Structure formats: structure tokens, C-alpha cells
Automatic annotation (TrEMBL):
CDD domains: IMPase (cd01639). This is Inositol-1-monophosphatase. Keywords: Hydrolase, Magnesium, Metal-binding. Its cofactor is Mg(2+). Belongs to the inositol monophosphatase superfamily. One of its GO terms (molecular function) is inositol monophosphate 1-phosphatase activity. It comes from Mandrillus leucophaeus (Drill). Its EC number is 3.1.3.25. The gene is IMPA2. GO terms for biological process: inositol biosynthetic process; phosphatidylinositol phosphate biosynthetic process; response to lithium ion; signal transduction.
Amino acid sequence: IIRKALTEEKRVSTKTSAADLVTETDHLVEDLIISELRERFPSHRFIAEEAAASGAKCVLTHNPTWIIDPIDGTCNFVHRFPTVAVSIGFAVRQELEFGVIYHCTEERLYTGRRGGGAFCNGQRLRVSGETDLSKALVLTEIGPKRDPATLKLFLSNMERLLHAKAHGVRVIGSSTLALCHLASGAADAYYQFGLHCWDLAAATVIIREAGGIVIDTSGGPLDLMACRVVAASTREMAMLIAQALQTINYGRDDEK
Ligand code: IPD
């Protein structure tokens, strides 16, 4: 559905900001995924991007919960920039159990199962193992806020990593696919303020199973609802990045 719609005309609306986009395809894909899963698992709960945008509460209980981003990279999708994915994570007792992320145009399926490894189209994934920030390729995403204070912090965080001599900082327009690049060893670290639990749930399992680290930007344990993350191929790298960052406050998914 997404591949076909990518090159067609779209009806685009905005959500929290002029850069936070949604199309009818986001809704269509989300409804389809939820209705298929609900038929098979009627007692399970759902947290999904477009339902949340329409006011559904994002509360992760102990019940089995599917955490869904129907199109990650909606802005790319709107512009026909072919870096878009579907992301589905699954948690039980607030523990992330497995995740699947599908790169729609390159037809790459990333999967991770707690204790069972991470794979891309059946090939095992391993992070790079890099510990040295001055040898790192770092990925980030801009996030939806564009007010001057937020932009200043965003750019200054990027500047701090470049001052620390990171080889490069990339923004590809899809948090989940950027995190998959980290899992596959094509990048060494990722950080972001302003992403959501549906951007992180599946990718977290995939990165951990590929040998990587996913933590909060404070350097403490990941808080799935805190709208911020540092992920890296090693704990050393994650801590160096966490220490370099200034916080951008996006609130919490479970308080919206
Ligand atoms: C967004 C994208 C974007 C990132 C945002 C995400 P969406 O997801 O991954 O690159 O900056 O934080 O929420 O809205 O395209 O599903």
C-alpha cells in the first residue's frame, strides 16, 4: 500500500507543527494493521501513532501491547523520498519482546526477538562495536518543533558532536530506519529528542539483539515514554553522546 501510494497524489494534513505531517495512507495502514491483529488477539492493547494523534492515551500497562507506527518517515513519504518504514513493536509486562521494521521501498524486513537475535531479510545483524566518538558516524532526526529556542538547541547539539570530531552527523527522515542502520553497523550512534514510543519500540529490540545499547539521554535506563533516546554500538559511545547533549524538552507520550 505504501509503495504504491508513494508516487501518487496525497492529501496532507499537519498535526503538532507545520513539519509534523499525516496522510490518508498513514490512517489506512494503521487501521489495517490494528484490525488484522485485533482479530487474532482480541484481548491485546494497542498504542498507535495516528490513534494517539486523535486523542487516544499512550499508556503502557502490563497487558500485551502492540506499539505501531504505520508510516515512519511521513515527511519523506509526502515528498516521495524513498526512505519510509512500517514499525511494529510488542511488549508484555512493560518489557519489549519483539519488533519488526519494514523498509517499504527497499523491501528490507528488520526483525528482533528478545533473546533470539536481530536479522535483516534473514541475515544476522551486528552493531559496529565502535567506542570512539572521533571515529563515529552519528545519526539523528530533527523532531517536529521548529521554534527558535528548539532549533538553537538542536543545532548546538549537532555542533558539539562535530566539535568532538565525529566523522559525520546524518538526518535521513526516518527514526526507525536510522536505528536499523545502527543495528546493522552502518552507523555507530543515534540520538534524538522528540521521537515517540512508536518510533522506538521495535527498533530498541532490534538494536539490543544486534549487540547495541539503547538508553535515556540522561545516561540512565531507556524510558520508552520520555520522547528522547541515545542508542549506540557500545555503552562507552552512548555515554559520551549523552554527556555531550543538552536536553530539548518534548514532554512525555503518556502525559499527552
Ligand atoms: C517521525 C520521523 C522523523 C522524526 C520524528 C518521528 P513519523 O515519525 O521519524 O524523522 O524526526 O521524531 O516522529 O511522524 O514520520 O511517523
